[in-house]
Amino acid sequence: MxxxxxxxxxxxxSAPIGVNIGILSYLIFxxxxxxxxxxxxxxxxxxxxxxxxxxxxxxxALIGIIFGCSSLIYQVETWSITKQTLVHFCITYSSLSxxxxxxxxxxxxxxxxxxxxxxxxxxxxxxxxAKMTVRSLNRKLHQxxxx
Length: 147
Fold this sequence. Notes:
This protein has four helices and no strands. The chain is mostly helical.
């Protein structure tokens, strides 16, 4: 499958995932627990809260698309896991921080600290999984060579 088709397919799958995660986050973290009040603090740009909520939905879909499509980086087999994670981090951090600043969702310092902690965890899990896979393959090769 060529890259454009792969990106298009990922975008179609990841946009609804981004929207669903966004709605779930919205419901969990909404200060008033009112589903019709906007979590965003940029209402002054729009005439009503419905418009703000539609923009939130668009941003969540865009976040899903960015995360989904940037996951293709992990398919570049010539890159180390560390390089893949750093490139993915840069793409997702810069995109998400720009959208978060626009929507006034988070303070940049808090967002940066949380994002870095999450990425450190993601990278650690990726390294552990890769090492386990290598050990398993080496074990299988060793057993095959002994027979």
